[in-house]
UniProtKB/TrEMBL annotation:
<feature type="domain" description="Phospholipid/glycerol acyltransferase">
    <location>
        <begin position="63"/>
        <end position="188"/>
    </location>
</feature>
<keyword id="KW-0175">Coiled coil</keyword>
<keyword id="KW-0808">Transferase</keyword>
<dbReference type="Pfam" id="PF01553">
    <property type="entry name" value="Acyltransferase"/>
</dbReference>
<dbReference type="GO" id="GO:0035965">
    <property type="term" value="P:cardiolipin acyl-chain remodeling"/>
</dbReference>
<keyword id="KW-0496">Mitochondrion</keyword>
<keyword id="KW-0999">Mitochondrion inner membrane</keyword>
<keyword id="KW-0443">Lipid metabolism</keyword>
<protein>
    <recommendedName>
        <fullName>Tafazzin family protein</fullName>
    </recommendedName>
</protein>
<dbReference type="GO" id="GO:0047184">
    <property type="term" value="F:1-acylglycerophosphocholine O-acyltransferase activity"/>
</dbReference>
<feature type="coiled-coil region">
    <location>
        <begin position="216"/>
        <end position="258"/>
    </location>
</feature>
<dbReference type="InterPro" id="IPR002123">
    <property type="entry name" value="Plipid/glycerol_acylTrfase"/>
</dbReference>
<dbReference type="GO" id="GO:0007007">
    <property type="term" value="P:inner mitochondrial membrane organization"/>
</dbReference>
<dbReference type="InterPro" id="IPR000872">
    <property type="entry name" value="Tafazzin"/>
</dbReference>
<keyword id="KW-1000">Mitochondrion outer membrane</keyword>
<comment type="similarity">
    <text>Belongs to the taffazin family.</text>
</comment>
<keyword id="KW-0012">Acyltransferase</keyword>
Amino acid sequence: MPLSFDWPFPERPTRSYNALSTVTIGLVGTISRIWMKYFTSVRIANGDTLLNAVLHRDPKRALVTATNHFSCLDEPTLIGATMPYRVLWNRQRMRWALGADDIVFTVRKHQIFFSLGRTIPIKRGDGVYQRSMDFALEKINKGDWVHIFPEGKINMTKELIRLKWGVGRLIAEANICPLVIPFYHLGMDSVLPNVEPYRPKMGQKVSIFIGEPLIFDDLVNKMKKENRSLQEIRKAVTDVIQNEFAKLKSKCEELHRQHLAGDASSSSSPKI
């Protein structure tokens, strides 16, 4: 089914549109960073890995970040927590995010706001070949950063669940396989509980464990030479990320236990 509203991104953005988008992204990122830095206790393991990928990767190779989804505030606060201001205010470096159309694009003003903030509306249940996924793939082919929650929903149980194959498509069908960095986080559902009245709480603890970069060139090229179907390739790619999620979950749980206990010895945050 198509989106219930007009496509929110102009085909040829004007200078004023780009300027307004920069301000929207920068202000939201700044507010998120201030909240996470001064009103939340955040511990990040391997933060330099993500920052280096954003700042120093090959400009022809896009970046895809994939993480678990436990709270409505995961995006944009996780980006605010991990990125410095020089990235938050640089529209060309900042991420594109995928957001559910029935959650964040429900009214016209939200459609305008979130599209200015580089959020792509996804229609859940509409498959990997919907227009929004095509648009995200276009951004990857231009070398941009795309952030995705491959669980496809807020995971209320926090158990490992099957990842959606959309993330596999964005990697397998890209002109150049993007650099993929998975990461896992805990504590965001204490910052914004998933129960009414849905008000952010101060003084909570959040832990973020950044995984090692993944490059899928060899796997994708091998499967293409074997004449494997696109469905098989995106499943294989998604399986690799699924396995990384399982590893990162255990590592982040240990990091979070130490954080809650007040042990500062395991912290590794980016130099920002």
